[in-house]
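<context>
A single protein, sequence plus fold
<sample>
Here is the protein in question:
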Amino acid sequence: MTPKRLLAAAVAVALAAAGCGGSDDAADGNTLKLWHFEGPDSAMGVAWAEAIKQFEATHPGVKVRFEEKGFEQIQKTAPMVLNSSDAPDILEYNKGNATAGLLAKQGLLTDLGDEVAERGWDKQLGPGIDTTARYDERGVMGSGKWYGVPNYAEYVMVYYNKDMFAQRGIQVPTTLDELTAAMDEFVAAGITPLATAGQEYPAHQILYQLALTKADRDWVDRYQRYTGEVDFHDEAWTFGAETFADWVGKGYLSKDSAGLKAEDMGLAFMQGEHPIMISGSWWYGRVRANVKDFQWGTFPWPGMTSGSSGNIWVVPKGAKNKELAYDFIAITMSQPIQDKLREAGGVPVAPGGTPASDPAMQEVTDTFKALSEGDRLAYYPDWPAPGYYDVHVSAVQKLITGSAGPHEVLDELAGPYRENLESIGG
């Protein structure tokens, strides 16, 4: 701990001992107000709970006032709350132009560049991981100031029910054609193969996954980082939308999934109702903890995949206890906490040299490393523009219900994207 941090901790202890908390402990420096939206049984929830214990143990007299928020709740209310006296000292926030980039552009976040350099956080992160932490004056990721620090890693994979696959003699797919053939066999047996949810992120991530099978880095950067023109009716987008609609028509996913949330999807897979779930590594720890009645596993999506650093810690511009916030970030980046996250089923953003106790978890960690080093992480479809998450959800719901065709849906995606491009100066 540097001298200025020792001083901050000492002041906090003195205030607590003197009973100077007053009506607003946070303003007096003896409370760290923390928001995050990780469930207590998720890998990140387990790791952050341990980080809170370590923080309080190393900061005598300072307490963490943790407030659990929903992902959707933070996404929709952050701009308003962070511009008020109710802002936390530190919060977990979604990364990308539409979220962290927007807050940075609005002047609501603290530039963490000096802390990143002083504490060496940039050196702990793997290739390309800092893309989601840095934003330029337009709020576009990949360059500019450090407005966040990634706290874990993530990518979209395919979860599968080994028992259901084995009952029908289906081998683990390694290509999209093999995955499609597997789903055909389940449909022929009267089983809806794919657990998904159209009311939140899962379904539109699948459409993007399909588009990525025809994409490359240049395509991703043009779409995500505005490095060139984007044609929403090109080969990749057309393949994604048309194939998704085809999957609906063939019964690979239920039309009822248009009204389901991510939680519904996860529970359906964990209860053995569907043999396949295409979603993120953030589910891994929870699936491992809860599935007891069948054998399950994962395999990589063929080609590029949605993924990046995980969500990021951000410090509001008006935070009352920034030094404490920086100390908390440092603890979450420490090897014991990163290892705790991995052992609970998460993907560490700063892995150490000791292998995981669970070989399957080590495989997930190694897969992320290979994706990162192979330049195969393609971020997420709703990142480019503010409000784009709701646009994607609504558009893909229409594909599921059949109320719009593939190219109508692509037009729906194109409009807000182009409006945002114009608003940031092209």
Observations:
- The chain has a mean pLDDT of 90.
- The domain at 155-307+377-423 is CATH 3.40.190.10 (D-Maltodextrin-Binding Protein; domain 2).
